[in-house]
């Protein structure tokens, strides 16, 4: 019987963050240990290896504001923040306008415009579906991004912030209104995507595939998509058996 993925567990939890963490521990994705306050006051559970508590510095690539060009729904966006805010509406002109915003902060401002026609049930399930799709597009756009996300290992990903975002992260501003832990949905979705990619990066021999950024051209990626091979399922050599995985030898035909 196939073990449920973090995404399956997230759906099973029905939006209950504590339930989700309990299910992650039950199925071995997290290891429960000593509780201790994080720098931003989030009483998270210690996990194996490490915890990433803010998407800055070395881990800035996890942030939606990080420059990470991606193609989503037929438009190119300079960051995931641009794409997410464009996803708030089905108006193509508005989406193009948001995609051209000079900064992710400006894209966010345009996405909050009162004149923007929000999609039905945006504040319900749709925003989570859009974020999931955008994160997939962002990280699957280039093998280096996949490798970067996998480099976080089993770390608990917490989008610590100071702008009172208790939905996508957890605010550590110190105000009484942000004393409770946030829902950290950005971190949860990133961990779910990481788990999916980790499964894809495991060779049939049990070895770990590796990704070499050098020489990987956008044209190759486009060819992989055109040939109906999923992004991420290119010929990525395994360090153990020198196979590309998916039962295709290195240098073999897709």
Q: Explain this structure to me?
A:
By secondary structure, the chain is mostly helical. The protein folds into 2 domains: 6-204, Orthogonal Bundle (Tetracycline Repressor, domain 2); 205-254, no CATH class. It is 37% helix and 6% strand. The protein has 9 helices and 6 strands. The chain has helices at 6-13, 17-26, 80-86, 92-99, 104-111, 122-140, 143-150, 185-200, 218-226, and strands at 51-52, 70-72, 75-77, 156-157, 160-161, 170-171. The strands form 3 sheets. The protein has a two-stranded parallel sheet with strand order 1-4. β2 and β3 (75-77) form a beta hairpin. α1 (6-13) crosses α2 (17-26), α3 (80-86) runs antiparallel to α4 and α6 crosses α8.
CATH class of the largest domain: Mainly Alpha
Strand content: 5-15%
What's the architecture of the largest domain in CATH terms? Orthogonal Bundle
Helix content: 25-40%
Average of the residue pLDDT scores: 74
Write down the secondary-structure element order.
HHEEEHHHHHEEEHH
Strand order of the largest sheet: 1-4
What do we call the CATH topology of the largest domain?
A: Tetracycline Repressor, domain 2
The number of helices is: 9
Distance between the termini: 29 Å
Biggest beta sheet summary: 2 strands, parallel
Domain tally: 2
Q: Uncertain spans, ≥5 residues at pLDDT below 50? A: 31-49, 210-237, 242-254
Radius of gyration: 19 Å
How would you name the CATH homologous superfamily of the largest domain? YbiA-like
Q: Give the overall silhouette.
A: globular
Quickly give the structural class: mainly alpha
Q: Tally the beta strands.
A: 6
């Amino acid at each position: 019987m196939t073990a449920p993925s973090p995404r399956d567990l997230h759906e099973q939890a029905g939006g209950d963050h504590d339930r989700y963490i309990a299910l992650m521990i039950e199925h071995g994705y997290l290891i429960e240990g000593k509780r201790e306050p994080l720098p931003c006051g989030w009483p998270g559970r210690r996990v194996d290896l490490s915890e990433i508590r803010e998407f800055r510095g070395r881990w800035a690539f996890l942030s939606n504001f990080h420059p990470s060009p991606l193609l989503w729904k037929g438009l190119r966006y300079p960051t995931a923040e641009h794409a997410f805010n464009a996803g708030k509406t089905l108006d193509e002109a508005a989406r193009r306008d948001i995609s051209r915003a000079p900064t992710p902060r400006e894209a966010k401002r345009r996405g909050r415009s009162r004149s923007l026609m929000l999609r039905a049930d945006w504040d319900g399930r749709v925003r989570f579906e859009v974020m999931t799709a955008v994160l997939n597009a962002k990280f699957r756009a280039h093998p280096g991004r996949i490798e970067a996300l996998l480099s976080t290992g089993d770390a608990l990903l917490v989008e610590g912030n100071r702008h009172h975002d208790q939905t996508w992260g957890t605010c550590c501003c110190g105000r009484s209104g942000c004393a409770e832990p946030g829902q950290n949905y950005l971190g949860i979705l990133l961990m779910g995507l990481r788990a999916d990619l980790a499964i894809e990066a495991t060779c049939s021999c049990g070895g770990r595939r590796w990704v070499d950024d050098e020489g990987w051209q956008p044209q190759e990626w486009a060819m992989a998509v055109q040939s109906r091979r999923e992004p991420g399922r290119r010929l990525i050599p395994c360090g153990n058996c020198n196979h590309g995985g998916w039962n295709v030898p290195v240098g073999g035909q897709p």
